[in-house]
Design goal:
This protein has 260 residues and is α/β, with parallel strands linked by helices. It is 46% helix and 17% strand. The strands form 2 sheets. It has a 6-stranded mixed beta sheet with strand order 1-2-3-5-7-10, sandwiched between helices. α3 crosses α4.
Length: 260
């Protein structure tokens, strides 16, 4: 597919999505959010894609925030619609994908950019990355899941401080807080993400999808995560991947999962 604001590439089971608005520091506008939804949906339905990596073009920013000019004149009704649609279309959508997603944070990840990274299943940052949710400095709060996902990842106290001060943290602080899994040099960022993706790709995509569903369940109100785990665990026994995985183990050979 052809896009105006993003680039996509596929190689060795990995789909890489690059937000390509370098003159705007890859800021998220409505058009970019729509294109990202389409790209993630296409990759998720592509059986050849085992892992999705998302990053930003250039060396300065992953995503420096939302395009403020699009909502500067909104009222309360417009604002609620903006947040609701954005969460449903992209941020919640990514979090609940059956295909694993990795955010490769190459520079600034602020506001909607950090919210996008947090919606991914985990994050890897270059050592020059800076992260934060500065929305209160504009008289608004994070609206794309930031007030919910940041406390889940770093704890309530740290999330309160980061949001209320509108400050930024560097990559090492983000790693210490548990916001990112790994920190590396800018030149090694994509190779490291690809190496992790390759390790993921060797495992059962069906089981990974079930694991994502079970893990996410524990963060949803009114959902018994243990019950979902039991259901997903049981469902795995009826899959071809389970048959292949257990047979390969017993035969002391490498498994070749069919993805069913």
């Amino acid at each position: 597919m052809n896009y105006n604001n993003i680039l996509t590439a596929f190689k060795d089971g990995i789909t890489t999505i690059t937000i390509n608005r370098p003159t705007k520091l890859n800021a998220l506008n409505k058009a970019t959010i729509q294109e990202l939804h389409q790209a993630f949906k296409h990759a998720d339905t592509d059986k050849n894609t085992k892992v999705i990596i998302i990053t930003g073009s250039g060396e300065k920013a992953f995503v420096a925030g939302a395009d403020i000019s699009e909502f500067a004149n909104f009222n309360a009704t417009n604002g609620k619609k903006l947040a609701k649609k954005g969460q449903e279309l992209l941020f919640d959508f990514i979090e609940n994908l059956s295909t694993p997603s990795i955010a490769a944070i190459n520079g600034f990840a602020l506001g909607g950019g950090l919210e996008l990274a947090m919606a991914c299943h985990f994050r890897v940052a270059s050592d020059n990355a800076k992260m934060g949710l500065p929305e209160v400095s504009l008289g608004v709060i994070p609206g794309y899941g930031g007030t919910q996902r940041l406390p889940q990842l770093v704890g309530k106290g740290r999330a309160m401080e980061l949001i209320m001060t509108a400050g930024m943290i560097n990559a090492d602080q983000a790693h210490n807080f548990g916001l990112v899994n790994h920190v590396t040099s800018p030149e090694n960022l994509m190779p490291l993400c690809q190496n992790i993706a390759n390790k993921i790709s060797r495992n059962s995509s069906v089981a990974i999808s079930a694991a994502i569903k079970a893990i996410n369940a524990s963060f949803k109100d009114g959902v018994n995560g243990f019950k979902i785990e039991i259901e997903e665990f049981g469902n795995c026994f009826d899959t071809e991947d389970f048959t292949e995985g257990t047979t390969a183990f017993l035969e002391k050979r490498k498994a070749h999962f069919p993805g069913n």
